[in-house]
Amino acid sequence: MQVQTLSDGHLTLPRSLLFAGLEPGAVAPILQAQNIGPGPIQPPINVTLMRHQGRVVLFDTGSGPAFQASAGRLNASLDAAGVAEEEVSHVVFTHCHPDHLWGVLDDFDDPLFPNASYLVGQVEWDYWFNPDTASTISADRASMAVGAHRRLALLAERVRRFADGEEILPGVGALATFGHTPGHMSFQLRAGGDSVLIGGDAIGNSHVSFAEPSWPIGTDQDAVAAAQTRLRLLDMLAHEKIQLIGYHLPNGGLGRVERSDSRFRFISDGSI
């Protein structure tokens, strides 16, 4: 099993979005400890590529050209990795936010990966296909709901849905990590005695969510559930020494988790 991450660029997010409701004086020293200066936060976007038993699998597809100007670089990264869009056999989604889903279509609304099968968690699928979602989600997320539904509808005939605990592909187990979205999924890859967790946005940053994992993060749709999920994952990763791939973690998102009392630390190692 060969695993690497590909850059889709980065996002630019205002601090008021990420840290809404948190005391700036408490957040500042956590960011300063990681040399994060004032101004917007610019999290990287790390798409995971897995090659295994003749399959070429992408976990999420980046933002495409329609979300933020600093993102949408996945095509160039695939080229650099020597992977043609036609070679991708499976696309697996952690969830359906724009920076994970919107890169799945080309400029003509055709699937960018024409020979791929698509896999989405059943709970996540049901949420974005619910006709009430666009009207009940917060106003700042309504366009996300419309965009997710449109893209999933165009892929519907080629989508396979799965549940928590399923082995969705050989060596790939699905793990429910609800909170960031109602049906967010993570994936544990196993080969021999080795294991790595593709965490998606269940652990969405390398600073506050490690130093103070119980604190709410503004990008989570259910901040309470997301914090509970985050604590559970961090404890598991540290205790079982499972490597982590984080979608918005630094240096390609590859690393491990260490615990110190109630706090955690992300140790980036850049390789698996």
How is this fold's topology laid out?
Elements: E1 2-10, H1 15-18, H2 24-32, E2 44-52, E3 55-59, H3 74-80, E4 90-92, H4 98-101, E5 117-121, H5 122-129, H6 133-136, H7 142-155, E6 159-162, E7 167-169, E8 172-176, E9 185-191, E10 194-200, H8 208-211, H9 223-240, E11 243-246, E12 254-260, E13 263-268
Parallel strand pairs: 3-4, 4-5, 5-6, 10-11
Antiparallel strand pairs: 1-2, 2-3, 7-8, 8-9, 9-10, 11-12, 12-13
Question: What does this molecule look like?
Answer:
The longest helix is centred in the C-terminal third of the chain and has 18 residues, at 223-240. The protein has helices at residues 15-18, 24-32, 74-80, 98-101, 122-129, 133-136, 142-155, 208-211, 223-240, and strands at residues 2-10, 44-52, 55-59, 90-92, 117-121, 159-162, 167-169, 172-176, 185-191, 194-200, 243-246, 254-260, 263-268. With 272 residues, the protein is α/β, with parallel strands linked by helices. 26% of the residues lie in helices and 27% in strands. The model has no long low-confidence stretch (mean pLDDT 95).
Structural class: alpha/beta
Indicate the percent of residues in helices.
25-40%
Radius of gyration: 17 Å
Percent strand: 25-35%
Q: How far apart, in Å, are the first and last alpha carbons?
A: 10 Å
Largest sheet: spatial strand order: 7-8-9-10-11-12-13
Structure summary, number of beta strands: 13
What count of helical segments does DSSP give?
9
Estimate the global geometry from the Cα principal axes. globular
Report on the biggest sheet: 7 strands, mixed
